What does this fold into?
Amino acid sequence: MPVVFPETLLAAFVSIFLFVALGAALALVVVNLRRPRNTTLAIAAGILVLCLLVVTVIPWNVPGLFGLVVALPAVVLAVLGGDPVVRRVLAIATHGTVREGIAGGILVSARPDAGDDPGAMQEILRGGTTIGYLERLGVVLGIIAGFPEAIAVVVALKGIGRFSELATPAARERFIVGTLASLLWACVVGGIVRLAIC
It folds into this structure.
């Protein structure tokens, strides 16, 4: 005779699994905050894919209080974890050809029409790390709250704020690749929680 789990027991099991798995992924990305490594980031991403499969396949939803317990590490994972992921994706995309500035931006040749020395460098896209933290926080909270339109608001605000700095190809590439990697990470983490609670 097969063993049948009550719904509450299965929901508790799913909650515990998600909490432990998201906590493990968070630990993996925290050790990568200073120097991102492909292996540990790939393992963290694999854990997220596993969590996504679990909440997609298992039809029982996590109860309210358990949902809050699952959401806490997920929000931290979305916000903090996106930083090493985005930096690693940008390093792969640019093949190390873009130099980073001291204020978190990138160094590009100064515009000759600005009257600067032709070999002078200027830093653009400063504050990208802080903006990334805020954009991922807005996106993950919006998705968890059932307001995915927050993604459009974040992208619009970021695009308007950065428009004047996107004159060079390096800046455009960094903006697009970094934004997409950041949003994808936050959307997957937020989607896991949203699918688990509803």
Notes: The longest helix spans residues 64-94.
